[in-house]
Amino acid sequence: MARSKDKTPRPPKKPGRMKQMWQVFQMTRRYDKKIVLFMVLGFVVPVAVALGLALLLSPGSILNLVLWTISGVLAGILAMLIILGQRAEKAAYTQIEGQPGAVGAVLRGSLKRGWVGSEMPVAVNGKTQDAVYRAVGRGGVVLISEGPRTRTARMLEEERRMVTRLGGSIAVTIISVGPDADAVPLHKLARRLTRIKPTLTKAEVLAVNNRLNSMTKKLPIPKGVDPMKARPQRGN
């Protein structure tokens, strides 16, 4: 008898790198109408600068003109990829801005080196879904509110008092992400943390974070949303 063919379904093939980049570009273009303009400028400017330098430094040399042109094209492609990455991240976080858990998504995927944060809030209001998140880094302890400042002020104060119980002179910075006029936009949150003046060493960051985690009660709440899996909003 002939052997029966294996009918086990094969796992779907992952898209290639170029296809992934095209999908990212398509997603970004839905929310960022200027992405094409910025990418074109990102490519054209380095090429134009390279050609100008070639004509200025090596007039009449075809070889140098070719080399400078190749360098300009490579620099332009790199600039396009950098611009796409930055605008795609902004577009992704724009989709989830205002949703519960959005700050947690930033702390999970966009924190810069030297910072420690959790996608789980340290305090939450079950009725309004307002929350407070915490990040620890060289700049000290940062408390980030998610929701209107008038509703999160009490939770922020309670968390600030807990930090002061550790003793010492630990710097505490409070950042608001919400509907307030002076709130920090979600896509700028990670960059805002890097601007805080360093006051702790790497060893102190680890010690402070471990101590705060041991003092924080575990909350039975869901994790932050995933910006790359957020459902696109329909246009009006």
From TrEMBL:
Keyword annotations: Membrane, Transmembrane, Transmembrane helix
UniProt xrefs under InterPro entries: DUF4191
Pfam families: DUF4191
Segments traversing the membrane: 35-56, 62-84
Chain positions covered by the region annotation Disordered: 217-236
Protein name: DUF4191 family protein
Organism of provenance: Cryobacterium sinapicolor
